[in-house]
Write a structure and sequence with these properties.
The protein is of the alpha+beta class. Helices cover 37% and strands 22% of the residues.
Length: 305
């Protein structure tokens, strides 16, 4: 039986109800305030309406919470920080009137940003390579040592401190590193982003996401000791990421770069762990806990935002 979706009205709130082969009915509300329900395929539209209506109070409270957290039209969130966007057709004028880029208002140093558009455009970004062949950060564990034949748990335990050390880069430092590859088309000053237009800002955001995800994959690959053959960054509506363990493909959401850096670390490690465990059973999370003991706290960073 093909899945059917109908639109139901709950006091002016539109709810999309999908009839699926599920045992229990569920309601989900996304941060963009879209309300969706999954109900058993044999339910009638009336029963689905009654089920949704029985959760009206929770639905309205959740929608109110998301509306209060919603960004203004001229705001954007990057690595957990909310910035006010300052666009202008003549970016040179904006640059001259904006506070100067310096170590005092941004921890990226006082060198004017450089620009590189390579790979920054398009709705989907791809990086096809064998990450294992790249030089990993010096703080990552050396899996080619004489102890490489030890058990996975032992390796994770002895190297957990190395991972924590490599995670010391701050969001400002990461932003500064990427701004250094742009040439006067974007500047971050305090809580404001100066940019010529939305297109250039979108390019920077995608460029930042791709570079950050690549670096984090190289950071955590020595723990999983598997190969990643492709990284794809795309707009994903319902997931932060996904993994094809058979092919070594990792997909990560563009929106992930908006979230707290600690959560970004977790999502990357989560997807890489699927290269070993193609499920979410206990051993999957036990493996993550060995490397990232506070992973549950990192998940709550987004749940509470």
């Amino acid at each position: 039986m093909a899945e059917q979706t109908i639109s139901l009205n709950l006091g002016g709130i539109c709810v999309l109800a999908s009839f699926k082969r599920v045992k229990y009915a569920r309601i989900r509300i996304s941060p963009d305030c879209a309300v969706r329900a999954s109900v058993p395929w044999f339910w009638s539209a009336k029963r689905a309406q009654e089920f949704i209506a029985s959760h009206e109070i929770w639905i309205k409270k959740t929608l109110e919470k998301y509306e209060n957290l919603a960004l203004k039209e001229n705001e954007s969130e990057i690595l957990g920080q909310i910035y006010e966007l300052k666009f202008g057709e003549k970016f040179a004028d904006l640059w001259n009137t904006a506070p100067k880029f310096s170590a005092q208002n941004f921890s990226g140093g006082d060198t004017a940003p450089k620009f590189c558009e390579s790979g920054a455009s398009g709705s989907v970004l791809k990086f096809d390579a064998n990450f294992a062949s790249d030089t990993a950060p010096s703080a990552t564990p050396n899996t080619n040592s004489t102890n490489s034949t030890n058990s996975t748990n032992s390796t994770n335990s002895t190297n957990s401190q190395s991972a924590q050390s490599a995670q010391s880069a701050t969001p400002n430092e990461i932003l500064a590193q990427n701004l250094a590859k742009f040439n006067g088309k974007i500047a971050i000053c305090g809580s404001e982003i100066y940019c010529a237009n939305e297109i250039e800002f979108a390019k920077f955001k995608k460029f930042l996401a791709l570079n950050l995800y690549k670096d984090l994959i190289k950071l955590y690959l020595p723990f999983v000791q598997k190969s990643v053959h492709r990284l794809v960054v795309r707009d994903m509506k319902t997931r932060w990421g996904s993994c094809n363990s058979a092919k070594g493909y990792i997909n990560l959401s563009l929106k992930l770069v908006e979230k707290d850096l600690r959560f970004v670390h977790y999502v990357v490690l989560h997807e890489l762990t699927h290269l070993i465990f193609a499920h979410h059973r206990r051993e999957f999370y036990d493996f993550i806990a060995e490397i990232m003991p506070d992973f549950k706290e990192r998940i709550n960073l987004v749940k509470n935002r």
